[in-house]
Amino acid sequence: MSAEHHKIIEELAFPYKAPAAYRALLDLGRRALPAVRLGLRHDNPDIRLHCCRFLDRYLSPDTLSDLMGMLSDGDERVRCSALHTLACDRCKEGTCRPEEAEVLPKAMKLLARDPDAHVRAMALEVVGQFVHTNALAAAAISAAKEGDENPTVRKKLDGMRREARSTGG
């Protein structure tokens, strides 16, 4: 990693420097991936968060396992961002999807047990991708409908229900 890239990663830790540093990473594009991969293991959760956000645009097969590791991060914002990156196709430059067998069990576990409601709501997005093809995904969403009373999760469940009705699902 170049000294310039290292400096950009370190600046992600400072709220007043982070927006410019993040734009600099985006300007670097895929050339920033080695620095971003190191940033995912940084002690500072703000750096890890911004590195996950970067992967939302530039996820690659090489970085997929790094992103999957972020699902067990100690910071709920990092877990949310990692789940968003796994669920969202809209933001990505290329196409890179995790294998169902790798991502679904982890997302179902977060949906069932994560202490943070925002993480559980984002896990619904990932689990919902498999609901029509995997009975375990459908069961996990049913369990969330029955057992999760948090307003954040309920709102996401209601949105999924409306979307399923409008698409005939």
Explained architecture:
The structure is a single chain. By secondary structure, the protein is an all-alpha fold. Helix content is about 70%, strand content about 0%. The protein has helices at about 5-10, 20-30, 35-40, 45-60, 60-70, 75-85, 100-115, 115-130, 135-145, 150-165. The longest helix is centred in the last third of the chain and has 17 residues, at about 150-165. The termini are far apart.
Helices and strands in order:
Layout: H1 3-11, H2 18-28, H3 33-39, H4 45-58, H5 61-69, H6 76-87, H7 100-113, H8 117-128, H9 135-147, H10 151-167
Strand content: under 5%
Number of strands: 0
Instruction: Give the % helix.
Output: 55-70%
- What is the tally of helical segments? 10
Q: Major sheet: size, sense and barrel closure?
A: none
Query: Any low-confidence stretches, pLDDT <50, length ≥5?
Result: none
